[in-house]
UniProtKB/TrEMBL annotation:
The keyword Membrane applies. Its main location: membrane. Gene3D superfamilies: MFS general substrate transporter like domains. It comes from Cylindrodendrum hubeiense. Residues 440-461 have a biased composition (Basic and acidic residues). Keywords: Cell membrane, Glycoprotein, Membrane, Transmembrane, Transmembrane helix. The chain crosses the membrane at residues 21-43, 63-81, 93-111, 123-145, 197-217, 249-272, 335-358, 370-387, 399-420. This is Glucose/galactose transporter. It is a multi-pass membrane protein. The keyword Membrane applies. One of its GO terms (cellular component) is plasma membrane.
Length: 461
């Protein structure tokens, strides 16, 4: 591959990868989701920690989410999508890892400057700037990794494949609060930022290590011609310009509302558990890690469920459950309401990857740019928390949970319409339902297309 990569990345011109050939590239992509999950898990805990140490309000503390989801994902995702279209997956991923590691290492001098500094808001501004750099890196990784997980294998299993990769995001996300409950909120560390320095130094080193791994790896590239040929082979062609892909734009709205709901639920979890459940801050941080474990279990469970049930049906049922539980949280009291709040994490788990797969299916040459648009939807995490923070400061944290409830309602409308358009199917079609004649005809058609792609690859060489 151009750009100084010592080991050229092979170009996949003979169709999608299947079976064991998927293991290595997907393992590399999973490592990126792991980094993203760990960073996100720390973000929600730092939100509360900065309130305590730097003396800022709940509304002001959401500046982290504004920088993370607004500055990084909303503003930088289109840039990442353009780099992906022009330079390919590998170089885009390396750019993302560089930004990620740089932002993490900058936490060290900012945290160090907090010692003896009475201006907590100025220090918090420095942390917001570091978070912005990390978010730009993660937006780049998300744009490349989500798209790659979908296009590297067969379209029929794209949703389940992306859900499986994103499940490892959840595995990492609950490690962050566990670390925080031990090193941020315990003993003398309750009022100190010293350990923040060491945690983010480790984060930076991890990002650099993964970057070295990608630098030398032979990551298969998938040209847009391959994606478009496959869509044509199965009768799926993205007609019209990029701006007329209306399903993608509605998916962007659903992604924005879902991520906004997810982020607000987690951001104010510790506040809710402490105020409404009478639980200490340290124990509430540990419970947040349990909630994120629940989220992770929900991702793996939904991946298995997607092998039997259609993703549209799963999403309709899960979103209805999320709406009901969030309504209870905004009205309930005591420890029971905290338990219900944890249960929401299970039902929201498959929403992001499923909406992403729904919004990018059958787009052919538009697939890479569409990935950038869908990742921009993550900016909902910058819009919803300030709204909820303002309501929480004025009316209390419990009442503020009406904000994610509204987000889930929009998601229900989008997935419900998609499910109806797909025929309201509940069960996945069985392989045996395809006739032998149809299979042989499809195989001949695929062989012809693969030969054509190989010829294209030889011409390009």
């Amino acid at each position: 591959m151009a750009g100084g990569i010592p080991t050229a990345a092979p170009t996949l011109t003979g169709g999608y990868l299947t079976g064991r050939a998927l293991i290595f590239p997907l393992s590399l992509i999973i490592s990126l989701f792991f980094l993203w999950g760990f960073s996100y898990g720390l973000l929600d805990v730092l939100n509360k920690h900065f309130q305590t140490v730097l003396g800022i309000t709940r509304l002001e503390s959401t500046g982290l989410q504004v920088m993370y989801f607004g500055g990084g994902y909303l503003l930088f995702s289109p840039i990442a999508a353009e780099v992906l279209k022009r330079r390919g997956y590998k170089q885009t991923i390396l750019m993302g890892l560089t930004l990620y590691s740089l932002g993490a290492i900058l936490f060290w001098p900012v945290a160090h400057s907090a010692n003896g500094n009475s201006n907590g808001k100025a220090v918090f501004g420095g942390f917001c700037a570091c978070t912005l750099v990390i978010a730009c890196g993660l937006a780049t990784l998300e744009t490349a990794a989500n798209s790659y997980a979908i296009v590297i294998g067969k379209p029929e299993s794209a949703s389940a494949r992306l859900q499986f990769c994103q499940s490892w995001n959840g595995v990492a996300s609950f490690i962050g609060p566990l670390i925080a409950s031990k090193y941020f909120f315990s003993g003398e560390n309750q009022d100190s930022l010293t350990n923040v320095q060491y945690v983010y130094l480790a984060v930076s080193c991890a990002g650099a290590a993964v970057a070295v791994l990608f630098f030398f790896a032979r990551l298969p590239e998938i040209p847009e011609a391959v994606i478009e040929d496959e869509d044509q082979a199965h009768g799926h062609v993205a007609l019209g310009s990029f701006w007329k892909q209306y399903n993608m734009w509605f998916a962007f709205g659903a992604q924005l509302c879902y991520v906004g709901a997810q982020v607000t639920i987690a951001t104010f979890f510790i506040n809710y558990a402490h105020e409404n459940g009478g639980i200490s801050t340290s124990k509430a941080s540990t419970m947040l890690s349990y909630a994120l474990i629940t989220f992770t279990v929900g991702r793996f469970f939904a991946t298995a469920l997607a092998m039997v049930l259609t993703s549209g049906f799963i999403m309709v049922v899960y979103t209805l459950c999320a709406i009901a539980l969030t309504a209870y949280v905004s009205a309930g009291h005591g420890a029971a309401s905290v338990g219900v709040l944890i249960a929401i994490f299970f039902f929201e788990a498959p929403m992001y990857p499923t909406i992403f797969a729904m919004g990018t299916k059958n787009l052919g040459r538009h697939t890479r740019r569409a990935a950038g648009v869908l990742v921009m939807g993550v900016s909902g995490g910058a819009i919803f928390p300030p709204i909820q923070g303002a309501i929480a400061d004025a009316k209390g944290t419990r009442i503020s949970y009406i904000v994610p409830l509204v987000g889930f309602v929009y998601v229900l409308v989008y997935v419900g319409v998609n499910w109806v358009r797909d025929g309201m199917k509940i069960l996945q079609p069985k392989a045996s339902e395809t006739s032998v004649g149809d299979e042989s005809s499809e195989k001949e058609n695929d062989n012809a297309i693969y030969e054509q792609r190989e010829k294209k690859g030889d011409d390009m060489a």
